[in-house]
Amino acid sequence: MKLLQVKSVEEVVKIITDSFQEINRVQELKMEDSLFKVLAEDVYSPEILPPFSRSSVDGYAVNATDTYGAGESLPAFLQLVGEIKMGENAEKINRSETRYIPTGGMLPKGADAVVMIEYTEKLGNQVMIYKQVGPGENVILAGDDVKEGELILKKGTVLKEAELGALAALGINNVTVYEKPVVGILSTGNELVSNTEKELKNGQIRDINSITLASIAKKYGAKVLLGGIASDDFDEILNKASNLLDKVDVLLLSGGSSVGTLDFTSQVVKKLTGGNLLVEGISVKPGKPTIFAKKDNKAVWGLPGHPVSAMMIFNYFGEILLNILSGSRELKFKKICKALLTRNIPSSAGRTDWIRVRLTKDTNNYQATPVFGKSGLITTLIETQGYIEIPPQKEGLEKGTWVDVILWG
């Protein structure tokens, strides 16, 4: 039996980030179809934004010098010459004149500031100004937001709501983005049958990992290609895996990486990648017997067959890998919930432990209750909201400790 040459979680993250680059396939999409896609090129502004100077408040457009010295006891009197309407060109004002202007209205020529309506009083065709303003006060100048030719969005930016809004404001309707990475999944094991199988024979179990791993891949923005099931035969696995690898960016081999069968899976992965094995075991529980290799810019994983182990490993490291392949290296922030631990958790020094927890809430605080169980039991993930990471330098956590619960997704 071959001993695992395990690497720490931090080492595996560094290996992934150092070893892979974005895929080189791009496509042009309409802006409305680009949510959560990643830009494949820098975007520069074709115009200024806003295209005209406008008011940031409801009030009166003025020449600021006409308000100097105005106050509660001695207001300035200006001639009201009309109203500025939204979406229409604003007529010029002369000295000692003013026009009512709504928020977002176009600042007329001759005006360089706006007095908030709260500091004014209208009397017939005159407006009393009770507060002086300076040039540019309560005004957004043309080009204040964006200059023509300015770099707006960098290559590698994930297009979210705000980014799409900026593109719409600038009249940019098409963007060049990276295509989604493709993840191929092949489950292995003589005991496995399709999850669609209605009746099981003795010794058979339905394939869980294809469904759960595909769901994780889709959650992180990838396309999925299911390769079905291969029996525990070297040539069958190698042939199916090789055919699948030609069509994908990430290949997941699920099963066959427990300690007893690690050598068998290692040989398949080595054959697929020309021996370019990057990781052969991770110092983490669950998921220690994980294999990770590279062929060109393609990743090949030998994941544990146990559903919980496979899910947690791919959920953690798969997000990092797919983020890189999709062209984005934006810093990802895990969603964290602070909670009080409801019981002691033992842990072994020298490895990272991921402990699934169930969250509840009393009057004041969230409470985290560990859910223990073997990694082959998928039900240990049901009704859990996340997990606690116990670093390798700690030997467990005590009841009553405040912990960071990393929420699923």
Structure description:
- Helix content is 18%, strand content 30%.
- The longest helix has 19 residues, at 307-325.
- It has helices at residues 9-19, 161-169, 209-219, 234-245, 262-273, 307-325, and strands at 26-30, 43-44, 54-55, 59-62, 76-83, 97-101, 113-116, 120-123, 126-129, 139-140, 151-153, 174-178, 182-188, 192-193, 205-206, 223-230, 250-254, 277-280, 284-285, 291-295, 298-303, 336-341, 352-361, 366-370, 386-390, 402-407.
- The chain has 409 residues and is α/β, with parallel strands linked by helices.
- The strands form seven sheets. Strands 7-4-6-5-9-8 form a six-stranded mixed sheet, with no helix packed on it.
- The chain folds into four domains: 9-24 and 180-325, MoaB/Mog-like domain (Molybdenum Cofactor Biosythetic Enzyme, Chain A); 26-49 and 146-178, Alpha-Beta Complex (Molybdopterin biosynthesis moea protein, domain 2); 54-140, Molybdopterin biosynthesis moea protein, domain 3 (Molybdopterin biosynthesis moeA protein, domain 3, Beta Complex), CATH 2.170.190; 336-407, MoeA, C-terminal, domain IV (Beta-clip, Beta Barrel).
